[in-house]
Amino acid sequence: MQAVLKDSGLKITAQGCKLLEFLTQVDEQHLTIENIYLGLNAQGETIGLHTVHRIMANFEQAGLVVGRLFESKNTVYELSNKPRHDHLICLTCGKLIDFIDPLIELRLGLAAEHHGMSIHHHSLNMYGHCFACQKALNSKSDKQKV
């Protein structure tokens, strides 16, 4: 972790190393500052919420993480070393799914080329209802019709 921080031009601190280690080991990759804070404290790390905010801002500025603001009011963070991907977001439960589609990537590249641009990055977020929530919504709607 120290090498990653050093290569990113960041000051090497014990808290920064612990936070980066947490981000690389946790299964969930779309975390709010509060999720990170609670997760670290659950592991016995005594790190303040303000410190997590500060370190994550430094990580984002250094390009280690990407902050994304979806429909919620909280920014979620994911490591920036993930392959370029897009998101499906459930409007009911907030479920967030990463996906990669080579055809979408191809179409975006062709569109950019057609207009004389090269893509540095893009953001494609699709909003709808996951199957479980859609089933619940349909069931609720059917009950109201009776």
UniProtKB/TrEMBL annotation:
Keyword hit for Transferase: no
Compartment(s) of residence: Cytoplasm
One BP annotation, GO: negative regulation of siderophore biosynthetic process
Keywords in alphabetical order: Cytoplasm, DNA-binding, Iron, Metal-binding, Repressor, Transcription, Transcription regulation, Zinc
A Pfam entry, by short name: FUR
Cofactor (UniProt): Zn(2+); Mn(2+); Fe(2+)
Cellular compartments per GO CC: cytosol
Molecular function GO terms recorded: DNA-binding transcription factor activity; transcription cis-regulatory region binding; zinc ion binding
Binding residues for Fe cation: 86, 105, 122
InterPro entries: FUR (IPR002481), Fur_C (IPR043135), WH-like_DNA-bd_sf (IPR036388), WH_DNA-bd_sf (IPR036390)
Annotated residues for binding of Zn(2+): 90, 93, 130, 133
Database matches in Gene3D superfamilies: 3.30.1490.190, Winged helix-like DNA-binding domain superfamily/Winged helix DNA-binding domain
Cofactor: binding comment: Binds 1 zinc ion per subunit. Binds 1 Mn(2+) or Fe(2+) ion per subunit.
Keyword Transcription regulation among record annotations: yes
Description of how the protein assembles with itself and partners: Homodimer.
Similarity annotation: Belongs to the Fur family.
Protein name as it appears in the record: Ferric uptake regulation protein
Top-level taxonomy: Bacteria, Pseudomonadati, Pseudomonadota, Gammaproteobacteria, Alteromonadales
